[in-house]
Amino acid sequence: MKEKILIVEDEFIVANDLKIMLLKAGYQVTGIASSVVQARKLVAEKKPDWVLLDIMLKGDLTGIDLAWELREMQLPFLYISANTNQSTLEAVKATQPYGFMVKPFRERDLIVMLDIAKYRFETEKGTETEAQIANQDIEGIIGKSNLLKEVIEKIKIVAPTETSVLILGESGTGKEKVAHSIHDLSSHKSKPIVIVNCAALPHSLIESELFGHEKGSFTGANSLRIGKFEQANEGTIFLDEIGELPLDSQVKLLRVLQEKEIERLGGNKTIKINVRIVAATNRSLEKEVAEGRFRLDLYYRLNVFPIELPALKDRKEDIEALANYFLNKYASSSRKNVTGINKNALEQLLNYDWPGNIRELEHLIERNVLLAKTNEIENFDLPLSISKPFYENSGQLKSMEEMEKEHIMNALHTSDGKVSGPGGAAELLKMQPQTLYTKMKKLGIKQDYN
Prior knowledge:
By secondary structure, this protein is of the alpha/beta class.
């Protein structure tokens, strides 16, 4: 028999349906509780292995209150609820559940979610000691801060498994580097890692790009196209900026993740694939879900093992090591005899806020290596912090238009005048490039600003 599961659900019909589904799948159901008080009693008496937990229950206490108690007992749990507003999602996330199912749901989705949750729980439990022992560095990930050590430990835990990973963090924090590290430490390392920038995919061609198409499947399809998932077969696919995918494409992606098969556009047969999924975003997907722009079932399918990357301003103890790493890299590639950064210049780096994170630091060091006239960088021409007070030197409050113009110009300075693409001002400002171009024109900012 499979694991023992306690159902905590105040609607009898839903609870009974859950019981039937679980029994059919071979699980043991230890009981049904409609309140936190009943659940506490059944947990103590029946000793379940897992708890399926609704949020709104009978009585004064909610499923979230019970979840905190279950965490103290180290008893794993999943939520099953129709409540998806943002404040509730944030409270749910804080309890660190192993899954979240949205009512109504299919029987297959419930069983798959349970399988994912169990796998994640066993992976974390089985590799915890190993991860603590293995403390060697990961190539290309520079720094010794505690925040970075936590990231490295999570990479080592999850890399040898087949678990999906969601990398979270601001633009420029190194999400693609982490994805490569996960791939390089996995059993898929001899196969390709295929990078997909979801934000750059034309809406009309997303399905063709991801899943491929047959010759003649649409006007202009003059030959067979192998999609990104098929290219990544037996390897890893990195779905960068996953939050940019439109909802209709999210449905198709969810099916691929659930069924592990694709169908080329215009094709009539399914193709089985074995692909490790790593996704990344600089958005708050909980907020996107709450506002109806991202599917909750897809979020929890991707969010099996989240890794959150700290902003550079939160790990300033790593700045010197990163700066020297980039200095050596670009001094070597440009064949310049630049060997160090003096104390005053280093102090500048430590006092800056780094809105563009590691990418901004890398570009700054590369530029200054090329401009250096001695073997030491003595000064950095850093932009004013984007978070400076919104006042003129005279003390007069700036207008919204003046603030917006200065904000955009600071972002352009940070990106070396680049508007679109990785590291561009649009990415830093978290807006579409076309929107930024329109604002620049309106505010009189030249496109060739640098």
